[in-house]
């Protein structure tokens, strides 16, 4: 049986319930070191620092397939632990 404290932690965790996600790079702004990944109709902001390897961020191009985890940030969904597929 899950205790009340455990249930609250599970319900307020910032991670999206589906875990690993797959998407396509929708936009990249190299001068700001960020971009947008589109997955199942939802846009996820990403920063180059959230790529698993810095060189991976440089290789992200429009339309590139990626795998990532989603977290709820202060301004909406964010992609983290990004890996080019």
Description:
The chain contains 2 helices and 5 strands; from the N terminus they run H-E-E-E-H-E-E. With 85 residues, it is of the alpha+beta class. It has a single domain, classed as Nucleic acid-binding proteins (OB fold (Dihydrolipoamide Acetyltransferase, E2P), Beta Barrel), CATH 2.40.50. The chain has a 5-stranded antiparallel sheet with strand order 3-2-1-4-5. Strand 4 and strand 5 form a beta hairpin. Mean pLDDT is 77; it is low at 1-18.
Major sheet characteristics: 5 strands, antiparallel
- As laid out across the biggest beta sheet, the strand order is 3-2-1-4-5
Number of helical stretches of at least 4 residues: 2
Low-confidence stretches: 1-18
Strand-pairing-aware structural class: alpha+beta
Strand tally is 5
CATH topology: OB fold (Dihydrolipoamide Acetyltransferase, E2P)
Percent strand equals: over 45%
- Topology pattern, helix = H, strand = E: HEEEHEE
Kindly report the name of the CATH homologous superfamily: Nucleic acid-binding proteins
Radius of gyration: 14 Å
Give the averaged pLDDT, no decimals.
Answer: 77
Helical proportion, percent range:
10-25%
């Amino acid at each position: 049986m899950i205790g009340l404290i455990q249930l609250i932690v599970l319900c307020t965790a910032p991670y999206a319930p589906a875990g690993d996600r797959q998407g396509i790079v929708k936009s990249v702004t190299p001068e700001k070191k960020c971009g947008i990944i589109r997955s199942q109709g939802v846009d996820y902001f990403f920063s180059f620092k959230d790529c698993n390897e810095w060189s991976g961020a440089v290789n992200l191009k429009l339309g590139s397939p990626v795998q990532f985890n989603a977290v709820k940030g202060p301004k909406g969904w964010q992609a983290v632990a990004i890996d080019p597929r």
